[in-house]
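S.,

Sequence below, as promised.
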Amino acid sequence: MMSLAMLDAKRMDIDKAYQEEDWLKVKIETLQVLNYAVVVFLNKFQDRISSIILDEEHFDFNEQYLMSSKHHEDLLQWMNRLAHLKTPMDDAEFGKLKIDFENWFYKIGGKNIKFEYRDHYLLTPKEAADMLNVSNVTVHKYLKNGLECVDTRSHRKIPKHAVLLWKDPVYCILMQKIYHENKMRNQSPEERLNDIWKELLDYQLKYGLTYGVDTLEKARKLAESEEMDISEYYQWEALIEEFEELKKKLKGN
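The prediction came back faster than expected:
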């Protein structure tokens, strides 16, 4: 792992690259931090992860983000976070780290990243349903909306952290965001809009609500009265936000 002296030297290299607007150097530093993160994951979390596969062939830097002060800040934060990582770490905290890293990977321009987990770290949909206190049918709906899962030889399985974070308001939405953005890479906006509408219609039928300006407010009241699972409310909220953004984008085109 990286020593404090190496960390300070790396920070200086990153700061210098931004001060001189040396974007080639920024790209190199970004890839080095990315590779360092993969090494840290594989060394620190061998009990959960067996491998991480990056699609390097289709990596396409997001130039606008790369040159921004936000990326400069994110790059330094990732260096610091990885260098001072404390282990052992519980499943929920590991999940937050993994999801944050995955989100950053896509922000810098990555196209595909795959985490392969140890068998003992994966749950069946039935086990996930028991942990979440919902039915198997509901878990399969969660999977359609972005609950992280992996395909095994027999059926889909769910990493433990995904189940633990599904009711976390921040990481539930972030998980769904990553899932839907990946899906959109292989879908036209029109196809995605149609899929979202079908999902929204399912919720409307289930809870007897119609789509309108006060739909979310009504859904929130159902969640507060525990007539609706809180994770479903967050899913509904994220879908409506994406639906409205896509409508604006298509209207603008």
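The first strand starts at residue 49 and ends at 54.

Coffee later?
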